[in-house]
Amino acid sequence: MRSLVILAALLLTLGQPALAGTLEYRMRVDGLACPYCAYGIEKKLKAIDGVESVEVDLDRGVVRVITREDLRFTEPQLEKLFQDAGFTYRSMEVQTLP
Questions:
Q1: How many independent structural domains does the chain possess?
Q2: CATH number at residue 52
Q3: Domain range spanning residue 34?
Q4: Is residue 44 part of a domain?
Q5: Lowest model confidence (mean pLDDT) among 14-18, 32-36, 91-95
């Protein structure tokens, strides 16, 4: 029983770095109208080192991006990224995930 508790504690400790330190960005973007648009944005964002996942909500015009904590997007960087892809960047909300 004791070895089971030690094993569980070890697994929790080893799993912490993978779970800790992620950021969630929610970006409002104009011009997202079709799945092809979503794919283009996903491809651009996933090419950035540190991006873990990308979800595009076409109905609401929201792009949700999960990144490592050490990756920080700036407003000018996002404006350029979306403009280069043919869309209009509007705003961003950021929160740290547990």
A1: 1
A2: 3.30.70.100
A3: 21-97
A4: yes
A5: 14-18
pLDDT of residue 37: 85
Work out whether the CA dihedral 26, 70, 14, 42 comes out positive or negative: positive
81: left (phi over 0), alpha (psi -120 to 50) or beta: alpha
The whole-angstrom separation of Cα 29 and Cα 34 is 13
For CA atoms 84, 90, 95, 97, the dihedral sign is: negative
Separation between Cα atoms, residue 12 and residue 26, nearest integer Å: 29
- Token reading at 46: 């996933």
Find out whether 9 and 53 touch, Cβ atoms under 8 Å: no
What is the distance between the alpha carbons of residues 92 and 24, in angstroms, rounded to a whole number?
A: 10
